[in-house]
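Recall from the previous lesson that a structure prediction takes nothing but the amino acid sequence as input. Here we apply that procedure to Putative ABC transporter, ATP-binding/permease protein from Faecalicoccus pleomorphus. The sequence below is the only information supplied.
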Amino acid sequence: MKEQKKGSPLGTLWSWGKAHHGKFVFSIILAILGVACQMIPYFCVVNVISKMFAGETAFSAYLPVCLVALAGYCGKVLFSNLSTVISHNAAYSTLRDLRERVVEKLAKVPMGTILDTPSGHYKSIIVDRIEGMEIPFAHLLPEMTSNMLVPLFIIVYLFVLDWRMALLSLATLFIGLVIMSIGMRNYATEGAGAMAASKKMADAVVEYIGGIEVVKAFSQSAGSYEKYADAVRGNADYYIKWMANSQKTMCSYNAVIPSVLLSVLPGGMALWLSGSLETMTFC
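The prediction returns the following tokens.
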């Protein structure tokens, strides 16, 4: 019997939102336009600097460029907000459809299986896990796509200007990715442990709340509460320990990746002083 090939996580998410693909695609297009508009002020600043180097002093020469920069910023706000609204609308519609499909499937599960499974497990799937997909649907799909396409265009543009400056601008990205890969090497194991701790807590909470009347009747409140409290403390302790171990690499790559000037300024200055880099390209 042939095993079915598993799709990529992103492909699986996309298939779950099939009924709302139109909204997701429109949201992605708007997000791309928003990020593109965000880049316009930077090109306007370059234009202003070039005019200053050329000795331009007339205010009328700078006004149109400033208005274009303002229009770019306004476009970024408009398109980004519209993208977010549409993606959230599509995301919550998708979550509704997923919950309906899970409940429909649950109705076909044998009663023995349902009785043998803690109610907290069903609550965790129907409420918590599906709710956790809101971020991938509403943010990952539009924002990841837009934040990848536009930077790719910028990288190509940098290589067209000067390949040496392009490599210098990418240096911190490569260093940051190396640090990130070190921090993520145990993610699968730690993530599975986090899900197990959360499931144990959810089962304990639902069991405690559902059986509280019986517990009181038989004076077993202390023991039952202890089991519930231990599960909650265990879940919190696991996440605190996991986050504490992740902070070093997380803070490091968040500090390194945006620090492009650390490589661009000294490297660009050296090339400019040697005469192999034009002033406007450096700017």
